[in-house]
Design goal:
With about 220 residues, the chain is mainly alpha-helical. It is built from ten helices and no strands.
């Protein structure tokens, strides 16, 4: 199968066509869900031939998987880069506070973005309610690499913490960050109800203070 005449006449490369399909599909899947989105809607919005989804991705299901995979990889890279920047400082040994703060900011900022971040959250909620991805996609593309990088960094700044306590500390930090994001979405959506507006900078400050105190308490208990 050839790339459509319309695509060729526009001078598009295959990568450009694929990106348009991914962008269109991401918005539609977030808004309407997998079942509520048709291939015709995707290709129409992406200004592609109707056969383009099959040609480039092998079907709607694989396109859906690639939409998630693209976003997961981007978020993963942002988080790992933030960890590596803190740990590669030359002027001083990184602190636990610096590590948790850098990770927290890198965790929150992409997800509170008013376009891509909010679409990804909506897609993720839909996926949780109506699973279509293989469970390993989230684990392999984002969770395992990120936890590995953060775990190694925490072992360096808190060498006495222990592997199990390190994992539990990371789970606690991630849980707080996820809850902050969901609360932020809920409060922003209901401004007219008089709910308090959340300041994400203050939330990050609290999570850093709360988490580092807890981690250091765990280290103290372990070493006493």
């Amino acid at each position: 199968m050839m790339v459509s005449n319309k695509d060729i006449s526009n001078g598009d490369t295959e990568k450009q066509v694929e990106d348009r399909l991914l962008d269109a599909a991401e918005g539609l899947f977030a808004e309407k869900g997998f079942d509520g989105t048709s291939i015709r809607e995707i290709t129409s919005q992406a200004e592609c031939n109707l056969a383009a989804v099959n040609y480039h991705f092998g079907g709607k299901e694989k396109l859906y998987s690639e939409v998630f995979r693209r976003r997961l990889i981007a978020i993963r890279d942002i988080r790992i880069d933030s960890i590596e920047r803190v740990m590669s400082q030359k002027d001083h040994e990184p602190t636990l506070e610096e590590l948790i703060r850098a990770f927290a900011i890198a965790f929150i900022e992409p997800l509170v973005d008013k376009s891509q971040g909010q679409r990804f959250i909506r897609m993720t909620i839909r996926e949780m309610l109506d699973p279509r991805l293989q469970k390993r996609v989230f684990a392999e593309e984002m969770a395992i690499p990120t936890l590995s990088a953060l775990g190694k960094a925490m072992s360096r700044v808190c060498p006495d913490l222990g592997q199990r306590e390190t994992v539990m500390s990371i789970i606690s930090v991630v849980g707080q960050l996820m809850n902050a994001i969901h609360l932020n979405e809920m409060f922003v959506a209901k401004e007219d109800l008089g709910l308090p507006m959340l300041n994400l900078t203050e939330i990050v400050d609290h999570i850093v203070e709360f988490s580092t105190a807890g981690i250091r308490a765990a280290v103290k208990e372990k070493t006493e």
